[in-house]
Specification:
The complex is a heterodimer. By secondary structure, chain A is α/β, with parallel strands linked by helices. Chain A has a single domain, classed as Aldolase class I (TIM Barrel), CATH 3.20.20.70. Helix content of chain A is 37%, strand content 18%. Chain A is built from 10 helices and 13 strands. A 7-stranded parallel sheet of chain A has the order 1-4-5-6-7-12-13. A 4-stranded antiparallel sheet of chain A has the order 2-3-11-8, with no helix packed on it. Chain B is an alpha/beta fold. Chain B has 6 helices and 18 strands. In chain B, strand 17 and strand 18 form a beta hairpin. The longest helix of chain B is centred in the C-terminal third of the chain and has 14 residues. Chain B starts with a strand and ends with a strand. The chains are: A alpha/beta, B alpha/beta. At the A-B interface, helix 1 and strand 2 of A face strand 5, strand 14 and strand 15 of B. The structure holds flavin-adenine dinucleotide and FE2/S2 (inorganic) cluster. FE2/S2 (inorganic) cluster binds next to loops of chain B.
Amino acid sequence: MDETADAIKRVIQSGAGAVVTKSIGREPREGYPNPTVVELPHGILNAMGLPNPGVEAYVEEMKELTNVDVPVIGSVFSDSEKGFSFLAKKMELYGADAVELNLSCPHAHGYGFEVGSQPDLVENIVKTVKETVKIPVFAKLSSNVTSIVEIGKAAEEGGADGVVAINSVKALKIDVDLKKPILYNKIGGYSGRGIKPIGVRCVYELAKEISIPIIGAGGVEKGEDAVEYILAGASAVEIGAGVYYRGLTVFKKVCKEITEWMKRNGYNAVDEFKGVALR
Amino acid sequence: MMYPRVVRIHKVVEETKDVKTVFFPFDERVEPGQFFMVLIPDVDEIPMSVSYLLDESKGFTFKRVGDATNKLFEKKAGDLIGVRGPLGNGFNIHGEKILFVAGGTGVASVAPAVEKALSQNRETVVALGAKNREELFFVERLKERGAEVHVATDDGSIGYHGLVSDLMLELVEGDSFDLVVTCGPEQMMKKVVEVCSKKGLDVQASLERHIKCGMGVCGQCCVCGGLRVCVDGPVFDGETLSKCRDFGLFKRDASGKKVYIH
Ligand SMILES: Cc1cc2nc3c(=O)[nH]c(=O)nc-3n(C[C@H](O)[C@H](O)[C@H](O)COP(=O)(O)OP(=O)(O)OC[C@H]3O[C@@H](n4cnc5c(N)ncnc54)[C@H](O)[C@@H]3O)c2cc1C
Ligand code: FES
């Protein structure tokens, strides 16, 4: 629910504290043919293929988001430093409050993960973008690497204002009746409940080694899922697949459940329990 | 679970030169106006309204227009496809006298709604529009069930010579209806909805938008300020649609770019 201004506005009305746009690239992309998304017993597998109308056309959606009450984070993807900074600059001009660099899409050839698994490249991308824009820059990281900490450190080194962990996990589902992969693109990214322990582990490892804020993502459906991420050191969480499991009211529900948990545990502010599990 | 169920086609019926109905085993309840995502292995997964509601099987009726529908057109009894659904809300059939207005393949999703209304002893009047006589289908099916069927063709080769929305205008002038149900080209539905709001008639229209996930997560199919055709629709009422700035104006292609409807 991040494609159009209307969809994003509906998410905001549903209680989200900030919104991240669909990942936008330079040229329009239709993405892969369907099936692009299937539900599995413990999560959702997708290979959308980074569909987006292209950065020039996306101004139309961003224009409608300039007067919303919450921060709008523009997500962008590219295959080079130059590409990323061009797109980040556009997002800044369009009025984005921050930019998220998608360094981790697991299923688009030449983009995302293929860029984000190389520490030097990540550092250079972040650095170049930081030199180009004034708004905060977040790097969205992949768990599909030997060491996410190494990539997180590279992002910090490059001057990132924060990292987001994690993007969906590279995965494959083979249909036993058709005897072939179910998604058109075959390989996809797994998200939802099944990947939460991986996401929490990544945030935990990152929190021990880097000092910039971490945004947790992956399998947040309930307040306690968000609490887990925060206990592991996250400052905030993103919700994606949770919209499917609990509807658009997931945002309000999660906030309410976090507050209830805090009350039960005697906390008044998120900072009081952030990273407590690291001690 | 939102995962394609692999089924063996058990019957294919040719309705016109370019339209076929595919029947597949499916014994769960489906409402008229709901749809399935139909998986054509190695090609695509596309939305198809349910057109036949039998106890043990369901059917969908489609026109060949592109890659996926052409591949589907070649399928025979015994071939495997995937079906994911039923998806969406379906029509909410109510009132004593109902007018159904369908254009082109829109009759595919309207037909089971007409049958449901008839089985509930509601008075039903149907207006079907097509380019010409050869492209009409389901006329006999609905007449046999007891519906009053009116036909409009663009070339006048049968029935009313002109647009089905103009035929509809005549029908509502001379009669009173509790509900109007419509499915077809968006410009046609736009006219139908406009007529209904002028006359204060309850109306429901079934919208088509590019569907990807079909489960409300990707946002691809949003209309009218963030309503998702795949879960909040595809059927919307006149009140929602008259506040909707994209209805009858633009759709979005697979990349999310606006495409204006003419
Ligand atoms: C809820 C719903 C119910 C539908 N029910 C029927 C029906 O009962 N009978 C029928 O003949 N058609 C129906 N359609 C339209 C049908 O899905 C398209 O004709 C089909 O997807 C075309 O695919 P293609 O590859 O053959 O054509 P393409 O050449 O790919 O495209 C032809 C047209 O179909 C549209 N289309 C392609 N892929 C999709 C998609 N994933 N979702 C929506 N539109 C798409 C394109 O935008 C284009 O306008 C329905 C659409 C929706 C949204
Ligand atoms: S198709 Fe994904 S939200 Fe409707």
